[in-house]
Amino acid sequence: MRLLHTSDWHLGQSLHNFDRHYEHQCFLDWLLETIEAEQADALLIAGDVFDNANPSAASQRQLYRFLQQARARAPGLDIVVTAGNHDSPGRIEAPGPLLEAHGTQVIGHVQRDGDGTIDIGRMVVPLTNRAGAVAAWCLAVPFLRPADVPRAGQEGAEAVDGYLAGIAELYAQAQAHALALRQPGQAIVAMGHCHMVDGQMSADSERRIVIGGTEMLPAGMFGADVAYAALGHLHLAQQIGRHGHIRYSGSPIPLSFSEVHYQHQVLRIDLDGGALQDVVPIPVPRAVHLLRVPSRPAPLAQVLDELEALDFPPAPAYAQPFVEVRVLLDAPEPGLRSRIEAALEGKHVRLAKIDTASAARGPSLVDAAVSLDQLAQLQPDEVFARLYRQKYGNEAPPDQVAAFAELLLAGV
């Protein structure tokens, strides 16, 4: 049996207020071609289908049109979609009865019966091969919130530990249910939207699921009978430690400038009976480039020279590269944006972000204030002076101190 594993589409996402519908559509069109070319039996989409809990009508149409086209082009294809932490469980499940008629199972949340028992069977989904026979059982587990998992009532740190233990218990119950259904030669595949121990996060675009690192789950929660675990949440495609069968597919497009060097991909999973045979990354073509100019923050004169040297062919606005400009300053530069925009005139790129840094930084404001009580007692002009020293390593010039005082007097 052959599966394709993908996740973290974030349909409807914008990058610094630029719409990304075109990039997502290019990916979905490519994925349709890939499903056909690879002769996939099933497609697993492991959460964060949408970028937020209230997706636009356009992004919802984009998803449902893709699901319809995928089944039309590969009539025997099984599709399993689980919700991520960005998705609304109810919204993503709402069209479930219609989608089921077309081979798509959508699991948005954990359901309980009248006495509060979790409906484990609902999350164990059969996957059929091209002959129409059940070849695998999928543990279609969505992002789990504390109320979703079996656990005793606890508070504080014990509640966090109980939450993690509850996630492990839910997976154990789902695996036990799948084992009871499995026939010889059938595999067990798990899905999850979570942060595993040893998983590498993106710097800018991934939302912490709980607090600190306490939400990280151990690889051991997937039992020995799980042939493959298809994970979502982390945008960098990666396997977990030495566990080659536990993998994040990563996001199909860079969702922030910190992801410009990621190798975006979909994973092809080949199963031989109940065992994992092979995992093959399939690179996703990048429809729109993200550029950091320069690669490290540099003085403004160097930055302007590099911007003026950019040379891209004409393209529609929606297909032009995004640019993050990185400037090293030793003092404020009031005309910074206008100078950068002038250097980019006619370059067929989109200025998405200007990132400024300073060569010298003093002690942090909190360090300088010693305590939060003392910080609360500082006057606004003192806060301004300390922040200026922290960022630029010297005293604020008199004209800027005077301008700040004017703003205070004006009540801004």
TrEMBL record:
Q: Does the keyword Transmembrane helix apply?
A: no
Q: What SUPFAM superfamilies does the record tag this protein with?
A: Metallo-dependent phosphatases
According to the UniProt entry, its GO molecular function terms are:
exonuclease activity
- Give the record's keywords alphabetically: DNA recombination, DNA replication, Endonuclease, Exonuclease, Hydrolase, Nuclease
Gene3D superfamilies per record: 3.60.21.10
Recorded hits in InterPro entries, A to Z, give: Calcineurin-like_PHP (IPR004843), DNA_Repair-Maintenance_Comp (IPR050535), Metallo-depent_PP-like (IPR029052), Mre11_N (IPR041796), SbcD (IPR004593), SbcD_C (IPR026843)
* One Pfam family, short name: SbcD_C
Calcineurin-like phosphoesterase domain ranges (all copies): 1-235
Please, which domain of life does this record's source organism belong to? Bacteria
Under the subunit heading, UniProt states: Heterodimer of SbcC and SbcD.
Q: Which family does it belong to?
A: Belongs to the SbcD family.
**Function of the molecule:** SbcCD cleaves DNA hairpin structures. These structures can inhibit DNA replication and are intermediates in certain DNA recombination reactions. The complex acts as a 3'->5' double strand exonuclease that can open hairpins. It also has a 5' single-strand endonuclease activity.
Its name, as the record gives it, is Nuclease SbcCD subunit D
Q: What is the lineage of its organism?
A: Bacteria, Pseudomonadati, Pseudomonadota, Betaproteobacteria, Burkholderiales
Encoding gene, per UniProt annotation:
sbcD
